[in-house]
Design a protein that fits this description.
By secondary structure, the protein is of the alpha/beta class. About 55% of the residues lie in helices and about 10% in strands. It has a six-stranded parallel beta sheet with strand order 7-6-5-8-9-10, with helices on both faces.
Amino acid sequence: MAILSAHVTHQNAAMADIERLGREDPETLLSSVSRLPGVRECAVLSTCNRVELYTVTDDIEMTRRAMQGLIDGLLSFDASSLVRFLDGRESVHHLLRVASGLESMVLGEDQIQGQVREAFELAARRGHLGPVLSMVLRKAIEVGKRVRAETALNKGAASVGSAAVELAESKLGSLEDRNVLVIGAGEMATLIARHLAGKGPRTVFVSNRTHAKAVELAWELHGRAVRFDSLVPCLARSDVVLCATAAAHPVLTAPQVEEAMSQRDGRKLVVIDVSFPRNVDPAVAAVPGVQYCDIDGLRERAAENMARRRAEVRAVERIIAAELDALEARFREMRADELISLLYLKYNLLKEREVRKALNRIAAGRTVDEVLEDFGSSLTYKFLSEPTAALKEASKEGDLALLSAVGEVFKVEGVSDVPKRAAPKSASEPGH
């Protein structure tokens, strides 16, 4: 059996195609993969940036064709150019990189680690994991934890949105039990507002020129919609102001902020403008008690953090390489354990048959000495007949490696001389 995986990710497919695959319920997709020809174990990793199918199969080519067919069917076109197939060590190596955050759109992001765990738990819960994929997914989760504990790959905000949240936290110590005002209700404002809302603020106010959009976003964030002409009272109550609108001119002015600050009893106000062009009057920065940052500062902060993250990649790759080697060593042990178990099972069955024969002969009146002699000879023949045939064939084919390996396994000296000698006579089973 071998590991085979299929990958449709942001690196080789359009986001629209990933979204179409991602709309498929992971449990339904997992069930479909489990029924593909050759599949013995499987797991599905589905995120906004990737859909990856991991399998253990006893027929790589048959399963590869079936997985391609499954993806083609879900996308309703030939998606062969979008799918990347990996097998064996490459497949496992890729998963360890994914769990570490090296394959993410934002280098080192943390969310993927939880998504790998969810994929593992779903596959385990539905009975689609066996000893191989279970070990691989556990190792991926373990590597993700180790990378985040031992390196700085995930340290520091690496996008403008996350930098805005990080900045607000650094200025106020914590956003918990704070009031947040979001000006704007577009895509950027929504993304950052969700980050802020996850930090435990007391209230999230949302204001937008189109009040209906403010109401919609406020409802999603369990906040309160504020009309655009009521900004000053809300500014006076807020600790953080996030401005992200599509306006071509400032929507928050210095006079508005000055009026609000006069009602704050000296409490400082953090104003973050992520709009382009800027929607906060730069003069706001000069208002006493205001800490102001625009998108240029956030981009610089994110770029510096990203550079630090990239510097950590080599350390992460060393961890992955060491863990991958350890995993492969464990796989070799598993294969050896499986082979040993099969050998014991096979030869114990042979032994039991010979013991029954010997007992029957004793019961029929044969002497114990005679029966034991025949028993020993028969058992030796049974144990060595197949290896003898294999060794004779190896000798004919000039397979010195097999002859040497057998000699090492059975601790027989002089095996290297075997090809120079006359081929050994085949053992003949003793008569009974």
